[in-house]
TrEMBL record:
Protein's gene: ADK1
Compartment(s): Cytoplasm, Cytosol; Mitochondrion intermembrane space
Protein name per Swiss-Prot or TrEMBL: Adenylate kinase
Cross-referenced InterPro entries: Adenyl_kin_sub (IPR006259), Adenylat/UMP-CMP_kin (IPR000850), Adenylat_kinase_CS (IPR033690), Adenylate_kinase_lid-dom (IPR007862), AK2 (IPR028587), P-loop_NTPase (IPR027417)
Region spans: LID: 169-206
Organism annotation: Capronia epimyces CBS 606.96
Length: 274
């Protein structure tokens, strides 16, 4: 028999992930007594917050719970950097200086995903986009064209002073985007991903000097996006200095989704998958 390849393993992981997401969706509907996925259907949201606020920590949980796609523009740009594309080369310079890639490029990147990514059919969570008022306007016009307006703009609020330790201690598994923290969320084995055992890295922009620039870019260019969504009545602010579990509960509160899924009573545990 031919040896199993890495790509076959990745396909299998992808399949298991989709199955899990589907089961979460079914569990959710079962618990809430919904016959139609009304909460899921309306799940179109963005997470706004400074570097290290916890966007990348919370977004995958939202994605899994509601079976929607998670589009992280920072990850999309880092994929271009890894592939050494012309955009990746240009983006790396900007990212390492703590600046922003051009609005047109970012708007088109998101438009392309929303148009073509089948995982986004149930809804989406945007992490790191929009980062300027021009990007927010671009998003609004593409959603208006589909008559599928944004439902929630969640701001993760936290003082800058708390972000230095979060960012300088962060460790990343590049292939999956999983993130850890040396102190707050350490991997089981030093510098190794819990799932694959592959090495963890530190992002090149995760140092105290670049963080200062990223924070000033955030306050100058992204903070006005909060005002933009406040006037549209879909903004909600959350205290992101709490521990991740409390942040998660606050997010569920914004969705009016107070029921938590018990892992021991879920379908997956009943069929022996967790
Ligand atoms: P991007 O990758 O989006 O970076 P960012 O916005 O700076 O956000 P981070 O990923 O640093 O933080 P996070 O909020 O996800 O924190 P995390 O959950 O990992 O963008 C990178 C660059 O790409 C930008 O600077 C820009 O150049 C460019 N770019 C991207 N999008 C763009 C756009 N739309 N337009 C133009 N340019 C764009 O948490 C951080 C750490 O803290 C982790 O180690 C985590 O374990 C820990 N942690 C999380 N929550 C908690 C908690 N509650 N308590 C304790 N520790 C916690």
């Amino acid at each position: 028999m031919a040896p199993i390849t890495d790509s076959q393993i990745d396909d299998l992981k992808d399949l298991v992930h989709k199955l899990e997401a589907r089961v979460h969706d079914l569990e959710h509907r079962l618990e809430s007594g919904e016959t139609k996925p009304s909460l899921v259907e309306s799940m179109r949201l963005i997470l706004i917050g400074p570097p290290g606020a916890g966007k990348g920590t919370q977004a995958p949980r939202i994605k899994d719970r509601y079976c929607i796609c998670h589009l992280a523009t920072g990850d999309m740009l880092r994929a271009q950097v890894a592939k050494k594309t012309p955009l990746g080369r240009e983006a790396k310079k900007i990212m390492d200086q703590g600046g922003l890639v051009s609005d047109d490029i970012m708007i088109n990147m998101i438009k392309n995903e929303l148009d073509t990514n089948r995982e986004c059919e149930n809804g989406f969570i945007l992490d790191g986009f929009p980062r300027t008022v021009a990007q927010a306007e671009g998003l609004d016009s593409m959603l208006q064209a589909e008559s599928k307006p944004l439902k929630h703009a969640i701001e993760l609020q936290i003082d800058d002073g708390l972000l230095v330790s979060r960012i300088t201690g962060r460790l990343i598994h590049p292939a999956s985007g999983r993130s850890y923290h040396k102190v707050f969320n350490p991997p089981k084995e030093t510098m190794k991903d819990d799932v694959t055992g592959e090495p963890l890295i530190q992002r090149t922009d995760d140092n105290a000097e670049t963080l200062k620039k990223r924070l000033s870019t955030y306050h100058e260019q992204t903070a006005p996006v909060v005002g933009y969504y406040k006037t549209r009545g879909i903004w909600a602010g959350i205290d992101a200095s709490q521990d991740p579990e409390h942040v998660w509960k606050s997010i569920l509160g914004v969705f009016g989704d107070s029921k938590t899924t018990s892992s021991s009573s879920g379908i997956l545990s009943k069929i022996g998958l967790r």
